[in-house]
Design goal:
single chain, mainly alpha, 11 helices, globular
């Protein structure tokens, strides 16, 4: 062009802004991938620390309350032993319930499978009875011919049990120190950092812990509410194993959006096999009702003060965590995203730390 002296052509502001955001997105994506890769490689350690933080978030108020009258080590010991006794008592109650209903369940499941077969033989399915009998015989032949595989799978399951027990022991070990001196440990960590970043790390960590604690309390309250509703409904409907199914609903509720429907689907299968299609249809309707209560009442009221995430973000986080790390990733994804988001919002609100512009410079301080 006339009048141009040479040199590099000017870059459009839109392109410069897009490039600035693009490399930041790439860096964040690489960081997230690295974090999940590390968690996948050392998933036992990551799960142990996560469970230790969950136990700390749940028992910290109890330990602080007991510490008003007892020495701190004794208060932590009483809180941990009391919680372990409660958990073991619940598991013993469930085991006793299952053992008491074992004979009845075998008969009801046998009769229920026959009812399902007769139902499938009628319109609109009209399945051949010989096909159903052939399926049962094929399953028996498969188990007989793959007995070594079944045994090796059982042995690997025993190995997995050892890993689970080791992870739980490590989580308990971490929670003891988190409960006893977590504040001092965090203060020591911040003191090792350069002075220029100490305040920002301290603020981000405090906000992240507050968000994590709020999320943990909220999700436990939601899971307990769902479990009580499911247990009472199944008991009133006469479905066996109401207590174990309610406990399954409690743990499944820790996976937002998808956990509760899966647990209730298991309850619907049990109802179909033992009580027939009518009761199973009622349980399916229960899935819809509890889903509406959880999505439109419990989550907005209980979780809004701790986690401010859009439902789309929650859904994408659960699916992404499940793809990256299975069930563990689905459980950890939402609290992880919530903690990162709350820490970022806290850093943006620091005095004199306005929102950063795309080129990396700090923006003007908000008036």
């Amino acid at each position: 062009m006339p009048g141009r002296t040479g040199g590099e052509p000017p870059v459009a502001p839109v392109l410069r802004t897009a490039a600035a955001y693009s490399w930041r997105v790439l860096v964040v994506g690489a960081l997230v991938y690295a974090v999940f890769s590390a968690l996948g490689r050392f998933h036992e350690l990551a799960v142990a620390v996560f469970l230790g933080l969950v136990v700390t978030a749940m028992l910290r108020p109890v330990a602080d309350l007991l510490a008003r009258r007892l020495p701190r080590p004794l208060a932590v010991t009483v809180a941990l032993i009391g919680s372990i006794v409660v958990v073991l008592g619940i598991l013993a109650l469930i085991g006793e319930t299952v053992a008491a209903e074992r004979g009845m369940l075998q008969r009801e499941f046998g009769d229920g499978i026959e009812r399902i077969e007769r139902w499938l033989e009628q319109p609109p399915f009209r399945l051949n009875p010989e096909a159903l009998t052939d399926i049962q015989s094929r399953i028996g032949r498969f188990l007989s011919s793959h007995r070594s595989t079944v045994i090796s799978t059982a042995l690997s399951g025993a190995g997995r049990l050892v890993e689970v027990l080791t992870t739980l022991a490590l989580a308990l070990f971490c929670s003891v120190f988190f409960l006893h001196s977590g504040d001092r440990q965090w203060g020591w960590f911040c003191a090792q950092l350069p002075v220029s970043v100490r305040e920002r790390v301290s603020v981000a960590g405090s906000t992240a812990w507050k968000t994590f604690t709020g999320y943990t309390h909220g999700i436990v309250l939601i899971a307990a509410t769902n479990a009580i509703l499911v247990g009472v409904a199944l008991y009133l409907l006469g479905v066996p194993l109401a207590v174990p199914l309610a406990l399954l609903e409690f743990f499944a509720a820790f996976i937002p959006l998808v956990g509760s429907p899966i647990a209730l689907a298991v309850a619907a299968v049990v109802a179909l096999a033992t009580e027939g299609p009518v009761i199973a249809a009622v349980v399916v309707a229960l899935i819809v009702i509890i889903g509406q209560i959880e999505g439109h009442l419990l989550h907005p009221i209980v979780m809004s003060w701790a986690v401010r995430l859009h439902p789309v973000v929650v859904a994408l986080s659960v699916v992404g965590g499940a793809v990256a790390a299975g069930v563990i990733g689905a459980v950890v994804a939402v609290p992880l995203v919530s903690v990162l988001w709350s820490a970022q919002q806290a850093l943006r609100a620091l005095p004199g730390k306005g929102p950063a512009t795309p080129d990396g410079r700090a923006g003007p301080r908000a008036s």
